[in-house]
User: Which sequence fits this backbone?
């Protein structure tokens, strides 16, 4: 092994002159380049490019020195996702992904994959998602105003409608909240793929019907 | 979508499926998923569905 070493003072690698970079190669391929704007890690001949930070308390710090400047992590490629993984080796009860804001926990994903956030609640508590919702006009030519995870509304007759889910629920034990304008109503026939709604004891149409599914 | 899916219900009436505008599925995909299994259906223009629902329970498909 060959080593470049400086024991008594800083070691400087200087590619002097405009446009000149410090290039680091492994096995004949460039793995990192120090340019005028930063460090580019290219991976060389490896299929996976990584920056490994390890230690008893490892940190990757982003420090913008200009007041008000943003820090960012960009997935610059047009393909693939930006993933933050708490590795499988950290699957103990204390495994978690935490986002702090000014020193106070604002959001957490715990070892059970529960998403918790504060947003004025007082602490980061588990958020229970609205899995589907729809607002529609059940009179005249029945029309959907807007929706999410609802593929369609089935008009079953006067004052009776069905919401069909784009992606099915995991089971039929979800809570359905159904409201309409000025009439009583509710839900029935809970299925993983749909839920029925009724308006009025004696079946009446309504021009404003809203449904939200929680699970 | 300016199309509707129509099928006859077990009770003898007519059900009309209104697609959600931004659900990402085609009318055929919605029909395959939201029409009860084994029931035949028709895809029609929205203009073919009456907007007067006074006698909604009396609707039939011809």
Assistant:
């Amino acid at each position: 092994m060959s080593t470049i070493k400086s024991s008594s003072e800083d070691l400087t690698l200087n590619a002097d002159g405009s446009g000149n970079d410090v290039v680091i190669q492994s096995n004949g391929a460039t793995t990192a380049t120090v340019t005028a704007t930063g460090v580019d890690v290219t991976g060389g001949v490896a299929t996976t490019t990584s920056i490994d930070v390890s230690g008893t308390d490892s940190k990757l710090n982003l420090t913008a020195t200009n007041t008000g400047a943003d820090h960012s992590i960009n997935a610059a490629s047009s393909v693939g996702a930006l993933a933050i993984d708490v590795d499988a080796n950290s699957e103990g009860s204390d495994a978690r992904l935490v986002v702090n804001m000014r020193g106070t926990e604002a959001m957490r994903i715990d070892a059970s994959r529960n998403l918790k956030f504060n947003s004025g609640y007082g602490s980061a508590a588990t958020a229970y998602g609205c899995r589907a919702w729809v607002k529609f006009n059940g009179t005249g030519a029945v029309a959907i105003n807007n929706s999410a995870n609802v593929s369609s509304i089935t008009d079953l007759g006067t004052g009776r409608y069905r919401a069909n889910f784009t992606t099915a629920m995991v089971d039929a034990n979800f809570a359905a909240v159904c409201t309409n304008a000025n009439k009583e109503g509710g839900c029935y026939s809970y299925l993983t793929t749909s839920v029925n709604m009724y308006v009025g004891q004696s079946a009446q149409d309504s021009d404003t019907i809203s449904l939200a599914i929680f699970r | 979508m300016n199309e509707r899916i129509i099928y006859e219900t077990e009770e003898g009436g007519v059900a009309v499926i209104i697609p959600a505008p931004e659900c990402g599925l085609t009318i055929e995909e919605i029909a395959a998923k939201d029409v009860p299994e084994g029931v035949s259906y028709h895809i029609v223009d929205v203009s073919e569905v009456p907007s007067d629902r006074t006698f909604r329970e009396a609707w039939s498909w011809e």
Q: What stands out?
A: Chain B touches chain A through 24 residues (CB under 8 Å).
